Amino acid sequence: EAQVTQNPRYLITVTGKKLTVTCSQNMNHEYMSWYRQDPGLGLRQIYYSMNVEVTDKGDVPEGYKVSRKEKRNFPLILESPSPNQTSLYFCASLGSYNSPLHFGNGTRLTVT
Amino acid sequence: SQQGEEDPQALSIQEGENATMNCSYKTSINNLQWYRQNSGRGLVHLILIRSNEREKHSGRLRVTLDTSKKSSSLLITASRAADTASYFCATGTYKYIFGTGTRLKVLA
Question: 20 to 30 A from B69, CA-CA: which of A3, A108, B89, B95?
Answer without folding.
Answer: B95
